[in-house]
User: Fold these one by one.
Assistant:
Number 1:
Amino acid sequence: MTIAEDVAILPEGIAWGLLIAFGILWVLLGWYLGRKNKTAEDHMLAGRNVGLALATATAMATWVTANTTMTAPQLALQLGVWGMFGYSLGALGLILFAPLARRIRELMPHGFTSGDFIRLRFGKFTWRVFLGVSLIYAFGWLVSLAMAGGVLINALAGIDYRVGMTVILTVCVLYTLLGGLRAVIGTDFVQTVIIVLGVAFIAWLTIDKVGFEAIHFNLMEERPELLNLLFPAAIMFLFNNLFFGVGEIFHSNVWWSRAFAFGRSVGFRAYLLAGLLWLPIPIVAGFVALATPALGINVPVADMVGPLVAAEILGLTGAIVVFIVVFAALASSLDSLLAATSDLVTRDIYRGHIRKRASDHEQFRATKVIVVLLGLVTWAAASYRGELPVIGSLAEVLYFTGAFVASAIWPVVAGLYWRRTNPTGAGLSMVAGTTLGLISYFTIGFYVAALVGAAVSLVVLVLSTWLAPRDFDWRLLAEAEPRSDAPVTRGAQ
Amino acid sequence: MMISAEALGAVVVVATAIATLAPFLLIALFIRDWKRGSLW
């Protein structure tokens, strides 16, 4: 599918120049930062001592996806002020993960992945259920990001969907392959600065050139519901988005691998600061959409509203700024997901199931091979967008995973803080939450999948632990190389 | 209940001001970490 070329705001030649220039920059930076990686630990966790500046920037950059920069304006246009306020509540996921990050680092000073934690804490059954949940989500997000890359480059510059998607994916795979997490974090810092400055620049110009009085007056005349603080659909969106965002962050190895990689006292402060600094971004990005009535812009494709406003106010400069911001936002999330998912597959599938005595060198090599394989599989799935029944639009892919991620919230939280949590109950809570969440997705609607998944999972987890509590020795999580896959239980209480 | 132009303006200006300062804060933290040798 091609978004109409008449919507494109940037000449194709300039877009190619930007893609090539920034692509080369990211790959060179990735190679430079990763050139001293010698072990799997270097490659996967950047030496486990990342400082506050890089840690905060990587958390912010990873959470600023193409959705934040493109969908926030779309939601403001569709759901009004609550659309942008609701989206900004995604920051709560980062803020609430701050204490978890500290706890993870304390309990597992030698941990590698979220899978390591689940295996040691809950045993093989729950570990395998969690891997299923986590890998389905990671693959869904990877494909949706690759699709977003193709769609946005096509929409902004008219470059063919498959060509744009292939270029973005290739660039991200290359620098992740060359530099591992160090490359991801280093490029994330530069990308964060670019994204946030670009978004703020467009907002200031919108304020200066249009003004709040004109924006408010025209909205009251043409779309008064967008200023309504009691807009029901927007309030429903807010709650679903909240659970979805928290579920994404709490379970995903993208955030766990950073908790392991950040310096000992850095994780809590980095996630807290990243959340507070991320909070205003959807408001800033979304606000520009409210200026469309005042500017008299016709919006043929809802998620193109941000670029259209930027191009109307700034002309070619605005189009260039938007293109760079979108490219940076896509790359900053895609690289993180590639790195974290390859770590999870290496540690929990390759080493956990296939080659249990794999040496450090073998794991180091496997991580690199898996990044390339992930890139290829993602490319294949994103190439057939709309041609396979299971892969639909961007939003469909993403919301489909809502039931999976929300069902993992409570097992993760209970696993970290509730000593008596029943290990099998934790696994069953994910199975039941995901199953009923998916049933509600297909029978009721996408907007309840995360809510149902989280609620059912909570009930099963609490009931199972109430009926059959198990004790756990937290010290077992601190093992560098666990001796056993089974969780140590001390009998029912 | 409609949000007023003043309230909308106040929220957006505060949000944009924080977003504008954020990159400079990150750069300042980067320089501090770099001087302390604690970037990585």
Number 2:
Amino acid sequence: MTLQGMSVKELNKDMLLAFYEQLWRIRLFEGQVQRLAARGEVPGFPHLSTGQEAVAVGVCAHLREDDYLFSGHRAHGHVLAKGSDPYAVFAEIIGRQDGVCRGRGGSMHLVDVAHGVLGATGVVAGNVSLAAGAAWAAQVRGESRLAVVFFGDGATGAGVFHETLNLASLWQLPLLLVCENNGMAEFTSREEHSNVAKVSAFAVPYDIPAQTIDGNDVLAVYEAAREAIEAIRASGAPRLLECMTYRMAGHYVGDAQHYRSKEELAAMKQKDPIDRLRRHLVKQGVSDNELEAVAARVKTELDAVVDRARRAPRPDPATVLEDVYSTAFAMAQRA
Amino acid sequence: MLRIRRFEEQCIQLAESKQFSGHYHVYIGQEATAVSVCNALGPEDFVFSTWRNHGHLLARGAAPDRMMAEIFGKATGYAGGKSGTLHMAVGELGVPATSALVGGNLPLATGAALACKRRGSGVSVCFHGDAALEEGAFYEAMILAAVWKVPALFVCENNSIPPAQRKRGQFTSSTLPAAQLADVPQSLQIRTEIVDGADADQLAESFERLVGEVRRGGGPRFVEVRCTRWPGSFPLWPELPDGPWQIAWAFDGKPDRADLALWLEQSDPLTLYVRKLIAAGAVTRSQLEAMDARAKEEMAGAARYAIDSPFPAPDQAYRHVWA
Amino acid sequence: MKISFAEGVAKAIQESLAANPRVLLIGGGIMGLNTAARALLDPVLRDFASRIMVTPISELGLAGAGVGAALAGDRPLVDLSTGSFIFQAFAQVANEAANIHYMTGGQTSVPVTFYSLAGRRGGGAAQHSHATQALLGQVPGLQVLTPGGAEDAYGLLKWALLESRNPSVYLSHPLLFDETAEWIPHDPFLPVGKARIRREGRDVSLIASSIMVPRALAAAETLQRQHGISAEVVDLRTIIPLDRDTVLQSAAKTGRAVIADECHHSYGVAAEIAATLAEKGLASLKAVRRVTMPDVPIPFSAPLEAEITVTAEKIVAGALDAVRAA
């Protein structure tokens, strides 16, 4: 669903309910990942976007299928919001053949070219310059698509982030940089490792217009992203959107978050983006029944997805040497 | 400044007559910066330089003969011929390592500054160029220096400035969109200054003050020193249009080439400073000539030393892998 | 007393910080330690808080800062976290730290230790699973430490932090943390550059390092019990410096060498050992086999990853093949 160009005031009840449904889809999806991980069914360490759903939903509402999306290790929400099939994404996370990467990538390396998801990479800030490259390619080819890259505030300590700001500005790339500033870089809070509180400040020397907004208000995200994306499509110049949000789960599943206080964790719950939209919808006259029906429908949908994914076959070990190179002949050597 | 100028001219002449091989970089036109900074430093301080290191090393007290020997790759060079000009370092003078990678020395300088902070003495100076701001290492090193609040002074010698912009105005780079280079470290919450690289007095005053601030625990500083390239400056092989600098040019003499004459008038820290001293009556022409004779003799001696020194024995290639 | 690999790491850091004020930690996350090790380390991180730098995610900047601090007289441990992230820092590790002593003609040295949690961890996928020892082995001037047991986890790290004069990459391993070994206080430390014979044998030499050590030991046990084959296990301990003499002696004794290595097959540590045996040990050698990871990026899905992992079973198979060959 894309609502390209509609301002937030023009959104009707059904459209808002659709946002609500999307937020729930991500929330429950992540809940399922967490549940299965606790049972040992998810290899590795998935990183959940619980609490950060509004950023994905608000931004992706304006993206076309052919716009490029890049994300990082915390990508599930972005990929779902971009339109990837939840079954294929979940199957990938649990390493099944039907996964978007045939089980080869896993949670941190989700790619779904059909939906424009060109890359989620597991190295912090690794994706930012990739997105600039994709934007550049689109520009060179004279296309009207843009590239969006999601990254966290922790990524702004990396030199490549700044190199990319420079390139995006110099080359005037159609690139939207979306920073989910959740104040945490792995296990270190922003105050501890940075003397610059707001990521928007980094964009100033490069004349990249930047905005800092409440990332837990999906309508605020929607509106700010609309303005930024329209500007990029019109002018082909980069923009940065900093969305202040909270990582409600740990850095990865299994992270007990001893480094955060109970008070902090409790305060976060107050700002839950789903609750915020629900309150707004109630004020617009949506009934509790309607809201519960949405949540129930999504739950049923995802239960079926998870069930099907769990029964899906695992990849055949004999295929392990495929896809190292993109040519037909086999170069990988068995030990 | 004069010693640096004469040393660099020797390099060019020796390279042109093929006395040593490999490409090299000279500091002509930037001498005042090295001298101003290093005059404010003491033995406990660290200096990090780049491939354009001759001026910094001389200002720090390195011996021209051992430097020249190193440029020639001789056994008597500071590194026994292992570094050549590109990585020339003098550990005992607080120049512990010299990176030839753009942006390579910035994190080193932050680290040394950290060590200085921990021991309670010393500052760490990092000379680099404008291109370093294009490297991710610049940001990482600066952010760390700011967060750790270490005594680091980043001296950015921006040698691409047209004369009109040196004292004021924006600097338009084709590789960095910032209006001022200093805008970049400012966005990282680091205090910055812009100084005219042709004004020796301003440089001296500024660095005396800045080194003091850094030394007193004020955290890192970034200084953009704006310099204008001289006409002989070419990327690989510098030249001396109209030969070595002449004292006469500080008086009423002029070089034949108009572009050089203009550069001397507008942008050469050496010429401008000599003229200032003369105008103030602080030095006479004959004093200058005596100084110059000494400098020329010293650098000619350095050249002879380098030429006469032996190359290292081949088996020296295996030494110094491990400390 | 028995200590775990993780406790060895924590103990080494604790004792080094206490022993020398020049030791500092750039980043103190030291990810993946078990509870007992964290119980050892966390109080230390508090007690020495002024010498522990909290860090942003800036591997290049931090690595370089570590080099710079070492140049200025400190002895830092730079926590580069997951082994694959060393690539972010590579310019400083390989092109600065390793080169400086040489290219200054011996004037300055860089006693920095890069802590790297490398190797296949299970489910880490392509970007978190690198075994970097062969890549790093190609960098003259860099010491590459690959402890294969708890006593060496402790001893090598402590040596790097307190005694080494040169830059080191200390390759910790996420799957080794729970391995235990007997640790005797004041026991003389086996010098760096000497391999450790973990098990004596007559019929085949299993050459291993890091995570391959416990797997080679398990393989040796199986070979003895099920096949009556007596396998010697050589723990290299360090890739640079490499103890070629011990390897050659063992291979001369048994006549067969099976090298187990978590690096990729081509251009790996096993390739280097095999070449050494070919150059200097041919006279008494009947067979050489490498048991390695194939040349593929590490896949995520469990059966795919299992397919390429170097297990004790595969080492057994390699040894049987070597024994049957000659």
